[in-house]
Structure formats: C-alpha cells, structure tokens
Task: inverse folding
C-alpha cells in the first residue's frame, strides 16, 4: 500500500515532529510513505532525522501535481494549518479521484480550525480531524492515532 | 563526555529538528546528551523520534537548576531564540561555572539576534553562533557543524 503525506508551510512547530510520527505510524500499518511538501518543509524533515531511520520518499508539492493523476496511492493524509495547505489538499484530492483521504486540520485559533475544515468539507470526501493545537503535539497525536487505527480495522 | 542541550520555548519550527540533529552530532562526537527543556519542547522531541533512535536523557529546565552545581557536564549547548532562552542559558552557565559553552542564537529578525547575542556575551564566556533563521534549518546546521567540528579538534 502507498500513502501520500501532504505537508503545509513549515511555520507550525508541531508539523515536522508530527510528520515523522505519521511516517512511522503509516509504515507500521504497511504503507510506503511519500512526503509531498515545499523545499523548506522537506529540509526540516531531513534535519529531523539525520540518519534517515524513518524511511520515506520526498516529492515537491508543486511539481508532483503533474504526476498525480497517474499515481496509485491508497491513502492521502494532509496536514492543514493554513488556507494554502487546505487548497493544496483539495487540489490533490480532486486530481487523485476516489482515494481514501484524511485531513488533519490544526490551528491555535479555533475559528481557523472551523474555517479550514469547512473548506475541506465543501470540496472533498475526506475524513476530517479537527484539533485546536499549536506546539503541544499530543492532541494531534491522539486524534491521528484514532483515525489511523480505524483505518487499520477497515483494511 | 557529557553534553547538556538547552532548548527554548517550542515556538520556532526549526528548534525540534535541530535538537535531534544536535543530539546525533554530539553522540557521534562521543557525548552522552541530556536535553533540558520545558515539557512542551520535550513532547515535541519525543514525537519527533517515536522509536527513540536518537538516544538522550530528558530533564526539566526549571527543576534541573537545583542539580546543576553538582553536575559534571563537559559542554553546554543552548538554543537561544527568545530572551527567556537567553536568560536560562546565562543562568545555567553561571551555575555550572567554567564549562565550555556554545550559544546558538537564531531569530528571523536580525536585531533580535544581536540583542540576544549581546545578552549572552555580557554575562558568559560562551562561544556565540549568530544566525538569522526561522524555518530554514540549513544556516543553523552549517554554523553548528562548524562549531562542533572545531570542538572535535580541541578535544
């Protein structure tokens, strides 16, 4: 199975730790993980795991759009903490058709959580995890675990 | 040899990736690493390495102050990106006496880099690495590498 992990801009301190966490969880569930992000977010992930223990492929979030229609992912997991990230997630979901998709929407500000969740809900069939969080990763971790464990039961 | 890695508040997206990077580098140089931080920063480091490949000990930045005078570290490396982090670094250096110390001062805003560097310079004998950086970890990485390689030559 193949999973695509979509990262947003790297301004949120919990994104890179949660990216590594998600790579590890998805690998345990049997997925080969590809991370799609901008170069800055990719650099942070690389520095975060200098020995490369948490195996994954990297692609550029813009360039990879051209290859999406022909790709064969079984899951798309998107980190959505800005409207640009919501837009990327929606674009990816649209181009990939009927792939199972999960949006992890998180923000310090609850009204932004609702706003981004609504954007995603209106344009995709994604499962949406909404978390009010900024630099404490635990609420993100707990909710992502729930969604992934459910996925495990479905597979 | 023992190194103490001092983290600031976890608001800066490059801090956690750079913490893991520093643990790895210091371990390669033969140090046992202890990370001293607040609970939020410690949680991010933990999530960043769910399998615990990058071995280190964790201590609480406030509680550990009481034990510092009797501790036997050979190196203190502090991440300084807020004035509270500068204050902690100075306090730690003062309590630990003549231990070799390095402050990695980084901020998006150049005038803050200068301000925090000056705070550290006025109160410690630390080697100061100044970097204008926020979410691109590369300037941090390059400058930290330089300082650590120099340390290797000194040892």
Result:
């Amino acid at each position: 199975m193949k999973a695509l992990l979509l990262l947003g801009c790297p301004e949120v301190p919990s994104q890179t730790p949660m990216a590594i966490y998600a790579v590890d969880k998805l690998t345990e569930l049997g997925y080969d993980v590809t991370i799609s992000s901008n170069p800055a977010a990719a650099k942070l992930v690389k520095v975060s795991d200098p020995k490369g223990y948490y195996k994954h492929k990297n692609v550029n979030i813009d360039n990879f759009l051209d290859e999406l229609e022909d790709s064969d992912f079984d899951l798309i997991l998107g980190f959505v903490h800005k409207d640009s990230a919501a837009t990327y997630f929606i674009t990816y979901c649209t181009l990939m058709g009927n792939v199972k998709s999960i949006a992890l929407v998180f923000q310090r500000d609850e009204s932004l959580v609702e706003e981004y969740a609504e954007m995603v809900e209106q344009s995709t069939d994604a499962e949406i995890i909404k978390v009010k969080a900024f630099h404490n990763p635990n609420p993100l971790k707990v909710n992502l675990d729930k969604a992934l464990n459910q996925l495990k039961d479905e597979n």
User: Anything to note?
Assistant: Chain A has a mean pLDDT of 94. Residues 2-154 of chain A form a domain with the Rossmann fold fold (CATH 3.40.50.10160). DSSP finds five helices and six strands in chain A.
